[in-house]
Each structure stands twice: as C-alpha cells, then as structure tokens.
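pasting input
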Amino acid sequence: MNLESIPLQAFLVVSSALFCIGIWGLLNSRNAVRVLMSIELMLNAVNINLMAFSSYIDNNLIQGQVFTIFVITVAAAEAAVGLAILLSLYRNRVTVDMESFNLLKW
Amino acid sequence: MSIAITTQFICFTVLSLVVIIGALGVVLLESIVYSAFLLGGVFMSVAGLYLLLNASFVAAAQVLVYVGAVNVLIIFAIMLVNKKEDLKPINDIKSRRVISTSICLTLLSLLIRVDLTNVWSLSSPQNAIGEESTIRIGEHLFSDYLLPFEVASVLLLMAMIGAIVLARRDVMSKDISTGLPVDQELIEKSSEPLLTNKN
C-alpha cells in the first residue's frame, strides 16, 4: 500500500479516543479540578477533528482553523470562570469532592 | 512544508501515542499534580499534531493559550485547593464504574465505526496552501468572521470580570446573612464553612 500522506481517519480515531477518555474522566472523577481537566481534553479532541477536516477537505478556505481559534478562546474563558467557581465552592464547603456538591439534588 | 512521508508517519504515531497515554494518565492517576503536568504534555502533543496538519499559527496559539495559560491556571488552582482529605466511600461505586465505562466504550466504538466506514470526499492536493494559512486566517478574522471575532473579545472581558467577581473575598465589612464581620484573611485561614453537609 503506497500512501501519499497520513490518512484522515487516523486523526479522527485519535480524536475519538481522546473524546471518550475525556467523557470517562468527567463521569468518574471525584476531584473537581480533574473534572475541569477532562473538559479541556474533550475540547482538544473537538479541535483535532476541526483541524483535520479543515486540512483534508477544506484546504483552500481553512475555516476549520478559524473555528479552532474560537474554540480555544472559549476554552480559555471557560477555564478561568470554572476555576473561579471552584475557588468559591472550596471557600464555602472546604472540599473539592464532587459528591458533596449536592444542594440541587432531588 | 514537506517532510518525508516516513518521518510524518513516525511523528504522527509518537504524538498520538503520547496524546492517548497522557490523557489516560490525566484521568487515571491518583495524584492530581501529576495529572496537571501530564495535561501539559497532552496539550503540547496536540500542538505537534497541528504542525503535522500544516497549521503553524494554530499550533502556536495552542501552546500559548493551553500550556501557557490554562495549564498554569489549573496548577495554581491545585495549589490553592490541594488539601489531603479522605473521600467518603460511595456504596454503589462498582456499578457506576461499570455503567460509565460501558457507555464510553460503546460511544468509542460507534465513533470509530463512523470514522472508518464513512467515505470522506477528500479534496486534492492536500495542504495546498501550506504556510499561507496564517494569512488566510487573518483574512477570515477581518472579513467574514468579523462579528464572532468582536463577540469573542466581549466574551473574554465578561469572563475576566466574572472570574474576578467569583473568586474575590467579600468586599462588604459585614456578612449579609449573619451580621458578623467578614473575615478578610487568606483562604488557608478559613472561617467556618457556610454550607457544610449535614448528613
């Protein structure tokens, strides 16, 4: 098999695996900081997808790269606000255990 | 930019292995500090994948924003809240683990099936514009993506103000609910927690 370049599917498989690892971490972590890290992993998986498609399918008007820039912006804002919420949660409950944040549970 | 195809394959394999193993380490390792540093490694390898896709500007942005800002912010948050505590055991943790793992594996197999069986209409030649991509991104940002670009600046301002408001100590000299003087000390000398668990 003579390949011209890396197949698109390879990038897609890597990003799928990264996304599923992120979801697993999001569901199973008990530390709130680790939950934020899992969200960042999932956003990175989406970014890899966008970049791969923009390079392989839309390589003249690389709109996927512009979208990636916007996703990175939103991720930075999300990390800042998320960590601020985490600090104020920690100040009020003196724990970062996700199981103890259950005031809205019915 | 044209690297020999064998070099590209080797780089891709190494980078994707680092991404996957690093991500597994982030979610599985016991120590949260190790997880944070592994997360930095994952972000760097993702930037390397972007370089393989001929996107040097986005790779630089990834390194600057994710490794330089988000990861440092996470490490600072860990330093502020890293207290050794014994987590309360959950009684149905086994079934929870089984259910969530099976959901993730199902989703993974579905995604991989779609990735491998769908026929993508690839354009050729690949990476035609190469190093011009930075210029093209700039043109996009100031022509057809001008409105999202401006809205992003407003979003960043809102996030900055929101983070400051959420994370600062109270500025009022008296607590509203109890009427006691507000503690202005650092976090570590914390006052009585307001909403401790009763059960």
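fyi Chain B touches chain A through 90 residues (CB under 8 Å).
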